[in-house]
């Protein structure tokens, strides 16, 4: 891609990795505190560090990386450059997001916003934390407008023909993101900010949680879809293969768009304020949103098998041997895919109403999201970074850096395996999530959890080591690796495929989505507004 686009993408990616580094440190510390290995100094506390870790990792690292990656890929697949208007949107977004990030971070550092990354009521932060979050969201919309702007221009220049797969997927991701962030924007602007400034004395907590999870579930697909873009479009090229089916890939994304928003109640299955009928509808839709992931698994297997067989792999699994196992650009996302198999199964367990009663609010859930976003998605982002950063800085991914990347992937995978296995196991024993070190007054059951909590801490140590290694390798690739050209891998279908044009008719899909949202949320939200629970007293934590 051209230099202006590269500069913009890199600006996003650097903030992403700065946040990642701080978040990794906070993560290791909180694991050690929980495992009883260290005590924090009196000027900080577990919940402050937990908030820093969650906000920096789950909200800042992901959003910045996603925008940086997608902007570069959209440019790469539409002629190599973003036009001036798209660049302007992109930079405006970066500035707003960065102002918002700094505001939110300052309030976390001053301990005025220890409200965890889910930040719904009744925990209350400084209003400046919420204003920072709002700026982050609005800034990310501008990043999305940069993609939409490039997309529209490309369509105009190409007589309305079907957009490249990477672009289509990026547009779908941002349509999802913009629609999904509307409810949290309403929560922040009309509930949290007025309450936090003291303009209103009570808050409708049910509504606050509902609006948050209305956003919170599609948020996880906003993380996942860019990883899927890498799986569908970049990984096939890395292994010397093709996109298995253009239509299937687009259909999977449309399904993700339609079914990942009207499902938020699966995070609220244990809440008494929502009637079981509505929860059931959300559970059914949740089980439907599993299907595009199964389609993705099928598609990836098909790509690997056809490519492996073409390279001479024979027998039932001989094609697997033909994969480029020593290429970190393949290895890191592949390990992520492997983790995603149990992670997806865990998600289905979570979504099943009765089983949710067993795992809800236990560290099982923490284990679930560390192997979804923390491994499947994160390892894919690392795998992408290993080629994206040198491609953008005009350097090469050297053999040594590649080898170190493999080591880093193994450290991350082993750390995550140990930590998340312990979390899943402890969750089934009933160990609560989001608690600092405690033995519950030396209760024998809680004492029995300690060994596994130490395993969690040990896994966290390995993860921190992997994070430091990653930052060192990326720093090397950006500033010290030999100058040269690194490929931006984009695969195509093997033969021309006829993709149904309906897949790109946005008014149809946005219309269907609006219908599903109204069906899934209209009545329950009206009910919550009507019955208006008494509201919490305005407790100040700042
Ligand atoms: Fe989840 C809680 C249900 C997917 C993230 N989830 C969370 C939270 C986070 C999160 C962050 O229903 C905690 C929120 C909080 O703080 O409270 N989740 C699901 C379901 C899925 C799912 C049904 N989650 C994700 C993804 C996430 C993520 C993806 C991040 C990126 N989740 C829940 C529920 C809760 C929840 C409940 C609430 C729990 C509670 O009570 O609080 C599904 O979308 C999963 C579908 C995935 C699959 C896997 C397909 C496998 C693939 C890999 C193929 C491998 C290949 C390689 C090709 C069906 C695509 C193999 C090659 C070989 C050779 C073997």
Plain-language structure description:
- By secondary structure, the protein is mainly alpha-helical.
- It has one domain (3-487, 501-531): Cytochrome c oxidase-like, subunit I domain (Cytochrome C Oxidase, Chain A, Up-down Bundle).
- It is built from 15 helices and no strands.
- The protein has helices spanning 3-34, 46-77, 84-109, 127-157, 165-197, 205-238, 246-259, 276-310, 318-321, 328-351, 353-359, 363-393, 399-428, 444-479, 506-531.
- Helix 1 runs antiparallel to helix 14, helix 5 packs parallel to helix 7 and helix 7 (246-259) packs antiparallel against helix 8.
- It starts with a helix and ends in an 11-residue tail after the last helix.
- 53% of the residues are buried.
- Mean pLDDT is 95; it is low at 536-542.
- The site of heme-as (HAS) has 33 residues, from helix 6, helix 8, helix 10 and helix 12.
């Amino acid at each position: 891609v051209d230099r202006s686009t590269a500069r913009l993408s890199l600006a996003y990616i650097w903030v992403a990795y700065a946040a990642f580094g701080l978040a990794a440190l906070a993560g290791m510390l909180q694991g050690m505190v929980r495992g009883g290995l260290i005590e924090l100094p009196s000027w900080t506390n577990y919940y402050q560090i937990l908030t820093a870790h969650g906000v920096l990792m789950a909200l800042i690292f992901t959003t910045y990386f996603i925008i940086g990656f997608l902007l570069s890929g959209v440019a790469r697949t539409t002629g190599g450059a973003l036009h001036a208007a798209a660049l302007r949107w992109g930079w405006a977004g970066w500035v707003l997001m960065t102002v918002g990030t700094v505001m939110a971070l300052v309030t976390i550092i001053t301990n005025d916003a220890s409200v965890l990354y889910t930040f719904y009521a009744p925990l209350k932060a400084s209003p400046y934390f919420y204003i920072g979050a709002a700026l982050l969201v609005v800034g990310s919309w501008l990043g999305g407008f940069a993609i939409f702007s490039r997309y529209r221009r490309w369509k105009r220049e190409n007589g309305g023909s079907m957009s490249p797969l990477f672009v289509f997927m990026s547009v779908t991701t941002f349509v999802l993101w913009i629609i999904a962030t509307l409810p949290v924007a309403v929560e922040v602007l009309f509930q949290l900010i007025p309450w936090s400034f003291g303009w209103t004395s009570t808050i409708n907590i049910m509504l606050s949680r509902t609006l948050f999870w209305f956003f919170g579930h599609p948020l996880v697909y906003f993380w996942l879809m860019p990883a899927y873009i890498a799986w569908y479009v970049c990984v096939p090229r890395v292994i010397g293969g093709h996109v298995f089916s253009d239509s299937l890939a687009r259909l999977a994304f449309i399904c993700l768009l339609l079914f990942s928003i009207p499902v938020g109640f699966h995070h609220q299955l244990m809440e008494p304020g929502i009637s079981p009928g509505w929860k059931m509808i959300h559970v059914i839709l949740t089980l439907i949103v599993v299907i595009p992931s199964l389609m993705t698994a099928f598609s990836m297997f098909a790509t690997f098998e056809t490519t492996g067989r073409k390279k001479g792999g024979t027998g039932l699994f001989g094609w697997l041997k033909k994969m480029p196992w020593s290429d970190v650009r393949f290895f890191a996302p592949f390990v992520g895919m492997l983790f995603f198999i149990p992670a997806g199964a865990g998600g289905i367990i979570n979504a099943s109403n009765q089983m949710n009663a067993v795992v809800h609010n236990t560290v099982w859930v923490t284990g679930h999201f560390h192997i979804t976003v923390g491994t499947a998605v994160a390892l894919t982002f690392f795998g992408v970074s290993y080629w994206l950063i040198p491609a953008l800085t005009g350097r090469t991914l050297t053999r040594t850096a590649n080898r170190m990347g493999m080591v880093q992937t193994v450290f991350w995978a082993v750390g995550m395996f140990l930590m998340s296995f312990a979390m899943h196991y402890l969750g089934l024993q009933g160990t609560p999530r989001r608690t600092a070190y405690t033995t519950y007054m030396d209760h024998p059951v809680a004492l029995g959890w300690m060994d596994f909590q130490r395993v969690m801490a040990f896994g966290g140590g390995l993860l921190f080591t992997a994070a430091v290694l990653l930052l060192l390798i990326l720093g090397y690739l950006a500033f010290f690796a030999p100058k040269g050209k690194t490929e931006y891998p984009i695969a195509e279908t093997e033969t021309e495929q006829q993709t149904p044009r309906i897949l790109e008719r946005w008014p149809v899909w946005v219309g269907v989505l609006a219908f599903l949202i109204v069906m899934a949320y209209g009545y329950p939200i009206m009910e919550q507004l009507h019955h208006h629970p008494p509201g919490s007293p305005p407790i100040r934590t700042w």
